[in-house]
Amino acid sequence: MSRYFTEDHEWIDVDGEVGTVGITEYAQEQLGDIVFVEVPEEGKELAKGDDAAVVESVKAASDIYAPVSGTVLEGNSDLADEPALVNTSPEEDGWFFKLTLSDAEELEGLMDESAYQAFVSKL
Amino acid sequence: MSINQSGWKPAIGDTQAPAAATYTGNRALMLEEALIFEIGDTRTTGVDFSPSPLQGRGPGRGEVGASAGDENAPLPTLSPEGERANRLGGLERTASFGLPGLSEPETVRHYTRLSRQNYAIDLGLFPLGSCTMKHNPRLNEKVARMPGFADLHPLQTMDTVQGALGVIHELAHWLKTLTGMPAVAMSPKAGAHGELCGLLAIRSALEARGDARSVILVPESAHGTNPATAAFCGYGVENIPATAEGRVDLAALTARLGPDVAAVMITNPNTCGLFERDMKAISDVVHAAGALVYCDGANFNAIVGRVRPGDLGIDAMHINLHKTFSTPHGGGGPGSGPVVFSAALAPFAPLPFVEKTDAGYVLVEEETAGEHHAQNFGRMTAFHGQMGMFTRALAYIMSHGADGLRQVAEDAVLNANYILRSLDGVLDAPFGASGPCMHEALFADDGLAEGFSTLDIAKGLIDEGYHPMTVYFPLVVHGAMLVEPTETESKAALDQFIGALRSVAERAKAGDAALKSAPHFAPRRRLDETLAARKPVLVWKEPVVAEAAE
């Protein structure tokens, strides 16, 4: 399983055809306390870059984009009751949704862990 | 001699001794007030009934009612079951349904106590940037309360409301003259409603020429209502970047224009407190691309009497009467947002509007618009707009006159610049080098101690007795603090505010731990905004009374 990152601070873990998407530790730190998360419904078709989910902090709402194209398998239902998971465990328990990748080649345009860390350090 | 029988011998004790907690939780005039549901009990609910139609019957009751003085009419009778029974036929409620149970004096005290915990423009400087919280002159109120205005009904016949129509017409004339625009829609009820009115007119104009377009361009620093309005009208929204000095990037805007762009929405002066110097050039390139220019007029206070937006190529602009023209705002409302139109959009302006004819004022509505206003896009409201605000705004305009309004803008800008420059070296002003600010001064959170933020400064200002400034807006500045003093503050009032803000900012830079837990002197301490958003308590729940131990 390998993890990729976008410049919009999403991460995606890819296991075969299935990707799990969340936001990075850096992103949750910038957003502050998360108070509400809206995840996509099962079966939703997403193109790379589409608005896929919404995350609200006390002050602002932000869109989460689909890092790659695919069909949503499930949203993380735990986030409805406990949006704070995005703060406490952004890169594990606080995942947003899983999708079936429709074009694995899209992953090639994403960053790996070290490239993302280098990207963040310049922000 | 007679001895001091009363025993009253004033003597100052130790005035520095620490205070003891009070039994009531009150601190002298700072009264701790419970929720309304926790006061009184359900047996004391007060109800006001209209005068009974039976009132006035019977001997000696001749004052009220149509059958006054009819001594032969029967007295109201009690139900046959007697004094304690009701006439609800068994339909009476048997359980509480959760209304508060207060008597009249309890109700009056409750709201009076709460009102004392409020902050208002009548209490002190209200520096909310972009909101223009200016003094509401009492003359406006006096005029609005004249019976001829206060007791109007919107369905009165035209010949009985000629004076009111005259007020609308006269105010419309002033708004058109001050903006240099040929038409105005008076009915929109606030700023965002005005934006909707402007964009609907733009949409109508584009569709009328068979050129419906799909995108509205909005600067990054725009009021959030701008993109929201564009989206509500069915347009896609795209951002225009700003230059390093905080103004619209004309080159980037020009590059984005194309046959899909319907309009550009620009706030001028913008929300960074800066005048868009390139506004005429912006309008020219937008028009050359076949699009139209909407101006968010929320900041008109800074330029009224000095700049006519019509001269800058604006096609539509709303005017917040509750900002620039001093009508009540923020709790005292309602708002009012007339929209002025260029010649290109005037035919599409909504109904109704007031016209002056030889026979007096007439209200042009659907039945009377006829061919001379056949392209109107419809109607924004049921009636004529916020009449009570029209009388207040016209009273303000006529009591100031053209020269007075010009001075309003000049003093608003002078006051904001006085604050901006007085905080040099204390707070970072990201656009301080972009020339004088307009009516509001913008600061950023650079240079605060580790762990301290704009929020701490805002909370510290509460302890200093001020409503905080606008914080974290505009979004283009990190930790933004947007201060708008308005023109009605004296130098003494400004100096005290500057001193307070300077003191709080210096504490934030020095890392004063006490500031992290401010406010200390407000009725409530710092609230847990995260918990409030995650687990909001939206209804009062009756506390569960623990059963007494057996």
TrEMBL record, chain A:
Annotated ranges, domain Lipoyl-binding: 18-100
One Pfam family this sequence matches: GCV_H
Annotated positions of the N6-lipoyllysine modification: 59
Organism domain of life: Bacteria
Free-text cofactor note: Binds 1 lipoyl cofactor covalently.
PROSITE patterns tied to this protein: BIOTINYL_LIPOYL, LIPOYL
A GO BP annotation: protein lipoylation
Cellular compartments per GO CC: cytoplasm; glycine cleavage complex
Cofactor: (R)-lipoate
UniProtKB keywords: Lipoyl
Quaternary state and interactors: The glycine cleavage system is composed of four proteins: P, T, L and H.
PANTHER family in alphabetical order: GLYCINE CLEAVAGE SYSTEM H PROTEIN (PTHR11715), GLYCINE CLEAVAGE SYSTEM H PROTEIN-RELATED (PTHR11715:SF3)
Matches recorded under HAMAP family: GcvH (MF_00272)
Biological role: The glycine cleavage system catalyzes the degradation of glycine. The H protein shuttles the methylamine group of glycine from the P protein to the T protein.
Similarity section: Belongs to the GcvH family.
Protein name: Glycine cleavage system H protein
Gene name of this polypeptide: gcvH
Automatic annotation (TrEMBL), chain B:
Catalytic activity as recorded in UniProt: N(6)-[(R)-lipoyl]-L-lysyl-[glycine-cleavage complex H protein] + glycine + H(+) = N(6)-[(R)-S(8)-aminomethyldihydrolipoyl]-L-lysyl-[glycine-cleavage complex H protein] + CO2
GO CC annotations on file: cytosol; glycine cleavage complex
Segments forming domain Glycine dehydrogenase C-terminal: 410-509
Known EC number: 1.4.4.2
Top-level division of the source organism's lineage: Bacteria
Example GO BP: glycine decarboxylation via glycine cleavage system
SUPFAM superfamilies referenced in this protein's UniProt entry, alphabetically: PLP-dependent transferases
Region described as Disordered: 46-82
InterPro entries xrefs: Aminotrans_V_dom, GDC-P_C, GDC_P, PyrdxlP-dep_Trfase, PyrdxlP-dep_Trfase_major, PyrdxlP-dep_Trfase_small
Hydrolase among keywords: no
Function field: The glycine cleavage system catalyzes the degradation of glycine. The P protein binds the alpha-amino group of glycine through its pyridoxal phosphate cofactor; CO(2) is released and the remaining methylamine moiety is then transferred to the lipoamide cofactor of the H protein.
The protein's name: glycine dehydrogenase (aminomethyl-transferring)
